[in-house]
Amino acid sequence: MEIQFNDLKAQAKNYEAEIDRAVKDVFSSARFIGGSVVHTLESALSKYTGAEHVICCGCGTDALMISLMALDIGHGDEVITSPFTFIATVGAISLLGAKPVFVDIDEETYNIDASQIEGALTAQTKAIIPISLFGQCADMDTINAIGSKHNIPIIEDGCQSFGARYKENMSCNLSTIGCTSFYPSKPLGCYGDGGAIFTSDDRIAQKIRMLVNHGRNSSDTFTCIGINSRLDAVQAAVLKVKLKYFEEEVSGRRSIGERYTQLLEGAGIVTPTIRTGCESVYSQYSVRVKGRNDVIKRMSDSGVPYAIFYSIPLHLQEAFKNLGHEPGDFPVAETVSREILSLPMSRYLTAAQQDHVVKTVKG
Ligand SMILES: *Cc1c(COP(=O)(O)O)cnc(C)c1O
Questions:
Q1: CB of 194 closer than 6 A to ligand 1?
Q2: How far is CA 150 from each of CA 117, 128, 196, 228, 265, rounded to the nearest angstrom?
Q3: How far is the CA of 19 from the centre of ligand 1 (A)?
Q4: What's the pTM?
Q5: 121 with 103: CB under 8 angstroms?
Q6: CB 320 within 8 A of CB 91
Q7: Which single residue of 38, 166, 299, 349 has CA 20 to 30 Å from 45?
Q8: Is omega for the bond preceding 310 within 30 degrees of 0, making it cis?
Q9: How far is CA 362 from the centre of its chain?
């Protein structure tokens, strides 16, 4: 039985006719960067999330970096985040010369352990970046309360959680700034790189709008030093079509995630814990297994694709060796990285395919 880890081909086929027309319109318009297609997409994203301002940009990594730049974060500053995330979260902090300060993760959700954040605050802490990992938002109420108490902005890394709910609110509209990625395999993916930044703070929005476009204020004035991180009109055209049907993708993914959890019950496998008030978009359906090597061998032998996010927590990556961490510094992240395993997930996974995955995983 042929199974895709994330069936982007089936998804592309589903929207093909409408996307072909939308992309052709962009080609005929010859307006390839920015323009009305990007603006209408930004309005639609604003309506979907409830964030007052949405600024599209080149990718999720840029969204994070630009958010930090908008808050004037750089040398000498510290940013609190989790060591169990994609490298881009921490790379963005480091590229600006700021210091990533890690806080271990919650053993059940794999998101930052909010109860340990205050212990990591210093006079240099300038932002906190919780990641909404695998599609479930972090403990945003607690994190926002810490932010308010100490006057520290919160940037949600929502690159895996666009479409997720947190107590009636949408991911990316839960804190000072939200960031997402439209990388093809993310919940809302385009056909290349893309990203967006969400905020309801007028001043921050204005600055971000300049930063994504070289710091440009008007056609010939530049008020700050920015970068080139704009969304292509072709990507916006793809996203506009996919956003129209996105709720179907979200509910489809959720049903498949919930079915996995039912089918895997009692098999000695740790299935995702979804907190009360949270609705995951299951960007990954990740389980924890003790004998991971045996399970992945069975999966390879039966042609069932899998992924491991993340096998090495970031505090132990060579890229961050200057931070001076050692094994044992963040024990939960280290244990989870040895046991975590992501199963095939897409709205287009059939029940028969899913049954086959479950049978193989259970062994
Ligand atoms: C994908 C991802 C990013 C980066 O997004 P790109 O669009 O690939 O630059 C950042 N953070 C997390 C948690 C991600 O999963």
A1: no
A2: 12, 11, 27, 33, 42
A3: 24
A4: 0.98
A5: no
A6: no
A7: 349
A8: yes
A9: 29
